[in-house]
């Protein structure tokens, strides 16, 4: 059992805990059915109050996984199965032992902070190359049998759930649920970008060899030397190209400032980096 394997499952557990808290303390008590299987469970719970939201999510995920194995194969992976049923279990534990109550009755605050917590949790799960099942399975079934794009399928399922929420809880709650769905998709993308963001750095300096050695030996990162010609001086020069983490860039900047105050540095954001020293391409 590798270190990365354990790390992924710890991160998934943290992620689904965030999602469960958002559902149990912000969404469900305020009847905000913000899409997906959890949103559908909130709607069904209104009509079948003796069945808790956590149990309903578990039952629906079991049914969906069975359908998926029969009709589209079992290409979901152990991490997705763990995340899916782990979320149901955590929700059940919260409902059974902690008697969850709404943190706030203000729908706009519940929608914003519920989306914030849920997006962080989902982003953590997605970043381990897993998902919480549910909606993804429905989307893949629609894609296979009705040839609807996965993205459109996901949006369609969430829209149907929020429509059911509007019918069940009223237009006001339905619109807030739709707002949560829209914000959630945007927020997840932004959080994932934040997890994976690195600094893409190019450096022109008379101390290029020293800087290259610092990058490789002190920061443990690779770098590439590109041949260039100064436009003003006409002299041959080397341009150093490297990608480093945010804290590593601070160290690199301070080092360069200390040995060559006239160095020229450009810095850009790299939202995802694949390869040695970063996320392995084979794990994608």
UniProtKB/TrEMBL annotation:
<feature type="transmembrane region" description="Helical">
    <location>
        <begin position="9"/>
        <end position="26"/>
    </location>
</feature>
<keyword id="KW-0472">Membrane</keyword>
<keyword id="KW-1003">Cell membrane</keyword>
<dbReference type="Pfam" id="PF02588">
    <property type="entry name" value="YitT_membrane"/>
</dbReference>
<dbReference type="Pfam" id="PF10035">
    <property type="entry name" value="DUF2179"/>
</dbReference>
<feature type="domain" description="DUF2179">
    <location>
        <begin position="221"/>
        <end position="275"/>
    </location>
</feature>
<keyword id="KW-1133">Transmembrane helix</keyword>
<dbReference type="InterPro" id="IPR019264">
    <property type="entry name" value="DUF2179"/>
</dbReference>
<feature type="transmembrane region" description="Helical">
    <location>
        <begin position="55"/>
        <end position="74"/>
    </location>
</feature>
<dbReference type="InterPro" id="IPR051461">
    <property type="entry name" value="UPF0750_membrane"/>
</dbReference>
<feature type="transmembrane region" description="Helical">
    <location>
        <begin position="159"/>
        <end position="183"/>
    </location>
</feature>
<dbReference type="InterPro" id="IPR003740">
    <property type="entry name" value="YitT"/>
</dbReference>
<dbReference type="GO" id="GO:0005886">
    <property type="term" value="C:plasma membrane"/>
</dbReference>
<dbReference type="InterPro" id="IPR015867">
    <property type="entry name" value="N-reg_PII/ATP_PRibTrfase_C"/>
</dbReference>
<protein>
    <recommendedName>
        <fullName>DUF2179 domain-containing protein</fullName>
    </recommendedName>
</protein>
<feature type="transmembrane region" description="Helical">
    <location>
        <begin position="107"/>
        <end position="126"/>
    </location>
</feature>
<feature type="transmembrane region" description="Helical">
    <location>
        <begin position="80"/>
        <end position="98"/>
    </location>
</feature>
<keyword id="KW-0812">Transmembrane</keyword>
């Amino acid at each position: 059992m590798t270190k990365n394997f354990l790390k992924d499952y710890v991160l998934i557990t943290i992620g689904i805990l965030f999602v469960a808290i958002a559902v149990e303390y912000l969404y469900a008590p305020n009847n905000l059915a913000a899409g997906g299987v959890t949103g559908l469970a909130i709607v069904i719970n209104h009509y079948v109050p003796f069945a808790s939201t956590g149990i309903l999510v578990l039952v629906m995920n079991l049914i969906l996984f069975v359908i998926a194995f029969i009709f589209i194969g079992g290409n979901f992976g152990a991490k997705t199965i763990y995340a899916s049923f782990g979320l149901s279990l955590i929700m059940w534990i919260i409902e059974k032992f902690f008697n969850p109550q709404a943190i706030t009755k203000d729908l706009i605050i519940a929608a914003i902070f519920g989306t914030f917590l849920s997006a962080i949790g989902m982003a953590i799960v997605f970043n381990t190359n897993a998902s919480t099942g549910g909606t993804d399975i429905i989307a893949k079934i629609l894609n296979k049998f009705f040839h609807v794009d996965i993205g459109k399928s996901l949006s369609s399922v969430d829209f149907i759930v929020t429509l059911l929420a509007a019918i069940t809880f009223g237009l006001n709650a339905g619109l807030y649920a739709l707002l949560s769905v829209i914000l959630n998709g945007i927020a997840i993308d932004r959080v994932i970008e934040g997890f994976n963001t690195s600094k893409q750095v190019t450096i022109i300096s008379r101390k290029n060899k020293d800087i290259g050695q610092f990058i490789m030996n002190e920061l443990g990162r690779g770098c590439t030397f590109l041949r260039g010609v100064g436009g003003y001086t006409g002299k041959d020069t080397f341009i150093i190209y490297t990608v480093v983490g945010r804290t590593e860039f601070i160290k690199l900047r301070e080092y360069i400032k200390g040995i060559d105050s006239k160095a020229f540095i450009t810095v850009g954001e790299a939202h995802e980096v694949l390869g040695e020293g970063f996320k392995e391409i084979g794990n994608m």
